[in-house]
Amino acid sequence: MKPVTEPRWLDERQARAWRGYRRMRALLDLQITRDLAADSGLSDADYDVLSNLSEVSPHRLRLTELAATMLWSKSRLSHHLTRMQQRGLVDREECPGDARGSMIVLTEAGLRAIEEAAPHHVESVRRNMIDLLTEEEIAALDTLSHRVVAHLSGEG
């Protein structure tokens, strides 16, 4: 990282937008997490694991792939998966051709859990964000979120 000689301070409008975004993100994450727990008994992390596994065929991913997708360390994810495995939501299998690797597999109970949770979760997302925006604002959000993600992930 190169040293900053003179800070490029945010102007009043930029600072207001940044503070508003931070507050919105914190409150939105809190509300969506509360709704998810109340509606399904799943945590945010549970939902992320289950949704990622449910969206691939045949409902299995290498632990390293899942950790990368979730932006978690393998160790942190492994600990969380142990708790989910104890609840019967996921299982682990040996990775073919890699004795040290493991495959994370969505169980029938895990598939039922995500299928039951998803309609309530998407309703919470709609109620707390999407339905508050115009079509133009959704298009702008799509553009800016993908631009920032591309920049931060090295794709931009």
Automatic annotation (TrEMBL):
Residues 14-150 form the HTH marR-type domain. SUPFAM superfamilies: Winged helix' DNA-binding domain. GO terms for biological process: response to stress. GO terms for molecular function: DNA-binding transcription factor activity. Pfam families: MarR_2. It comes from the Bacteria. InterPro entries: HTH_MarR-typ, MarR/SlyA-like, WH-like_DNA-bd_sf, WH_DNA-bd_sf. PANTHER family: MARR FAMILY REGULATORY PROTEIN, TRANSCRIPTIONAL REGULATOR, MARR FAMILY. This is MarR family transcriptional regulator.
